[in-house]
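Annex B.
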Amino acid sequence: MSLVLVASKTCPHCIRVVLTLNHLKIPYELKYIDIENRPDWFIKASPLERVPILFVGDAVLFESLVILDYINTLTPQSLLPKDNLQIALNRARAEFSQEIIEILWSVFSAKTLEAFDLQMKELRWLFSSLETWLQQTKFISDNVLTLADFAYAPIFTIIPALKQVMNFDIFDGFPRLRAYVDNLHAIPELKMSLVENYDQLIQKKIQSREPYFWKQ
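Glutathione S-transferase: predicted structure tokens.
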């Protein structure tokens, strides 16, 4: 059955699906759209009018973590643990990544010092949970990659794209998380899952919001 993924170029929810498909070597077609100028066919197909969506034949899947779960069933090389409790924990921690995405964008969009400090405090609170989960393992649930890690990997591609304009260390005080991010960046398929001008697109997107940190 044919797979067609509809995505936008800088969306971390989309990149996590691209990355997982590439890692599992599952054939698919990729269509990029401008999310600010969504075509009519996409609006009709996407129940929430958001990317990503995955056409599986005539069926349409939406919500990136649901899509990851489906992709994982298409290959014997499962990215989930074998124990049912560990599967549930893996999925819960993957869901937690949604909070990281939301607060990270808020940090990079904050227009005042007060707003920036508030969002950084929230982000560090979330990072503390990741730091705890990584106390005994290389990755989120184990010493091997699992589906949760593919949920997190694209989030942290935003930070190196902004390193030239960031005057703060976002991982300060989180050594295990810093090492984890390095491990994620070492996934061979991650770079190939980003568009060629990804860094420039991220910079343009963030700068257009006129955030506080960019002015410092």
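The chain has two domains: 3-72, 84-215. The mean pLDDT is 96. Further annotation is deferred to the next reporting cycle.
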